[in-house]
């Protein structure tokens, strides 16, 4: 019987142009560039402008990933958007993306596992492909977390940035692709990193606004301790599951939260920092988007090549954590070049027509 493997065949990122430096933040709260750099490694982050949203950044990253994979959006079977800063509470951001890029055959849903969401999504997509449930899947991590940040809270406002990254996963019988994954959660730590307002126990009200429950709340020290432990555990476990050792891994791509967390993880793994991808200095913590953004830049810098083994490892609110080991491949061979971007114009027209049809049907049948 043939084996189906889940290969990463496309990748793309989208970040806003607007840069917010540490010095800019020092004008808002009692902090300094020196403190932020020494405690986090972050120098600057990107901030979405008023026209940019989680779905618009996600759609842009998605189109770039489809271009690399040379895949028509209409050939997608599934779209997963991992996000903690969705377009709406519902419907799913993934449905907005589905409509925008013209993925007419895809089912689409959001995945909430905070900063580990992208790694969860990769595992879900890989399992769907391996079990014959889908051939072509888009996994996106997209965030506008700066919209959930309290710009008066120096503990959190220094950390987060906006952006999106996407992978295309495709079925192929060639060896490689997603080789193993380890995913965990521990809801006993739910209070350590959360946005408590606007949900079921605290529906949005003047009081929740007054109490600032719509902002990110975090116990930084506890999250820090948890992160350094689980990054090491999850990486070792996923490498072991694939019957490899750290010597077989050419590049480690960790969630970009804090330089000190990443360095502690590398020490715990006894793994050289030169083989660890770090770009949080320029983007801050973009949550679910941090790993795909770091991957895209690693490829651009020639640090991740076909045949290399890489481990993606993340931790986040929930608490959640996980890792995935991927043997990197690249686009599948193709005969004819496709233009996913051209489909976008068609998708917009299709979407307008579908809305119009609903209005006409409502007019004919009555609205109830
Ligand atoms: O995707 C997951 C997202 N979350 C994380 O990754 C968070 C993980 N945690 C961290 O990255 C770190 O805990 C922080 C960067 C958030 C904080 O660094 P720290 O070295 O753990 O600092 P701390 O919380 O232990 O605070 C040390 C001191 C405190 O003052 P006192 O109580 O010792 O007088 C803070 O009030 O630093 C103070 N402080 C600041 N000072 C200047 C906290 N934030 C700032 C700031 N500027 N921005």
Characterization of the model:
This protein has eleven helices and 13 strands. It is α/β, with parallel strands linked by helices and 368 residues long. It has one domain: Peroxisomal Thiolase, Chain A, domain 1, CATH 3.40.47. It has a five-stranded mixed β-sheet with strand order 1-7-6-4-5, sandwiched between helices. Strand 12 and strand 13 form a beta hairpin. The longest helix is centred in the C-terminal third of the chain and has 26 residues, at 340-365. The model has no long low-confidence stretch (mean pLDDT 96). Oxa(dethia)-CoA (UT7) binds next to helix 2 and helix 7.
Index terms:
368 residues; alpha/beta; Peroxisomal Thiolase, Chain A, domain 1; 4-stranded mixed sheet; 11 helices; 13 strands; globular; binds oxa(dethia)-CoA
- Output the strand order for the largest sheet: 1-7-6-4-5
Large-scale geometry: globular
Chain-averaged pLDDT = 96
In this entry the ligands are:
oxa(dethia)-CoA
Question: Whole-Å distance between the termini?
Answer: 54 Å
Uncertain spans, ≥5 residues at pLDDT below 50?
none
Write the H/E string, N to C: EEHHEHEHEHEEEEHEHEHHHEEH
Number of helices: 11
Find the CATH superfamily. Thiolase/Chalcone synthase
Strand tally is 13
Helix content: 25-40%
CATH topology: Peroxisomal Thiolase, Chain A, domain 1
Return the structural class.
alpha/beta
- Rg over CA atoms: 20 Å
Q: How would you characterize the largest beta sheet? A: 5 strands, mixed
CATH class: Alpha Beta
- How many structural domains does the protein architecture include? 1
CATH architecture verdict: 3-Layer(aba) Sandwich
In terms of DSSP E residues, the strand content is 15-25%
């Amino acid at each position: 019987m043939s084996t189906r493997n889940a290969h990463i065949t496309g990748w793309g990122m989208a970040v806003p142009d607007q840069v917010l430096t540490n010095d800019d933040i020092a004008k808002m709260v009692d902090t300094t560039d020196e403190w932020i750099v020494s405690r986090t490694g972050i120098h600057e982050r990107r901030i979405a402008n008023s026209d940019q949203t989680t779905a618009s950044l996600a759609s842009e990253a998605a189109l770039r990933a489809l271009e690399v994979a040379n895949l028509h959006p209409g050939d997608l079977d599934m779209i997963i958007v991992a996000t903690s800063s969705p377009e709406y509470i519902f419907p799913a951001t993934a449905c907005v993306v589905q409509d925008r890029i013209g993925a007419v055959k895809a089912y689409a849903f959001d995945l909430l596992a905070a900063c580990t969401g992208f790694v969860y999504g990769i595992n879900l997509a890989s399992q769907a492909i391996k079990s014959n449930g889908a051939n072509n899947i888009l996994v996106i991590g997209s965030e506008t977390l700066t919209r959930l940040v309290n710009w008066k809270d120096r503990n959190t406002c220094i950390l987060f940035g906006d952006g999106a990254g996407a992978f295309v996963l495709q079925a192929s019988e060639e060896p490689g692709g997603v080789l193993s994954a380890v995913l965990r959660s521990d809801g006993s730590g739910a209070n350590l990193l959360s946005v408590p307002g606007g949900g079921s126990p605290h529906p949005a009200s003047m009081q929740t606004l007054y109490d600032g429950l719509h902002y990110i709340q975090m116990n930084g020290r506890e999250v820090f301790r948890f992160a350094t432990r689980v990054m090491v555990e999850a990486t070792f476990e996923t490498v072991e599951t694939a019957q490899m050792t750290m010597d077989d891994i050419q590049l480690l791509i960790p969630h970009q939260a804090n330089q000190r967390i990443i360095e502690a993880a590398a020490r715990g793994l006894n793994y050289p920092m030169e083989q660890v991808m770090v770009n949080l200095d320029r983007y801050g913590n973009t949550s679910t988007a941090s790993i795909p953004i770091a991957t895209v830049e690693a490829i651009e810098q020639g640090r991740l090549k076909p045949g290399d083994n890489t481990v993606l490892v993340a931790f986040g609110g929930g608490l959640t954590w996980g890792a995935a080991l991927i043997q990197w491949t690249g686009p599948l061979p193709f005969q004819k070049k496709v233009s996913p971007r051209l489909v976008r114009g068609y998708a917009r027209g299709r979407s307008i027509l579908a809305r119009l049809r609903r209005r006409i049907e409502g007019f004919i049948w009555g609205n109830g």
